[in-house]
Amino acid sequence: MKKLFYHSYSPSAFNLGTLVLRLVAGSLMITHGWDKLSHFASYKQQFISFMGLSPSVSLGLATFAEFFCSALLILGLFTRLATIPLLVTIFMILKVNSWDVMKHEVVPALGAIYLALLLFGPGKYSLDARISKK
Question: How much is the pLDDT for 101?
């Protein structure tokens, strides 16, 4: 019971926490990316034009972030770099939906997780940690 109220944390708990954040956030977003990747032709007809780019290019960037960057996040490879396109995607999702966070409450939660991973890094249980040890 004492550990529940203790204000400090162990390095292994921190590393396990970052692993859980990476796996959960990556798994939630990769499903959206896979759907866009597998139905690219049907999505590009209705996709938004981001910063003057064509809908096809905008969809390609969103697919890259949602699928490939999420895969990197799950693996813990280039974690901090992979969170940047994911954060941009989160902001675009919120902008397209008129910043209605109550309608899409998972989106700001994912944004908070990506921001935390950008700040904390991938943790010990990642390919980034294995590569940096060599």
Answer: 65
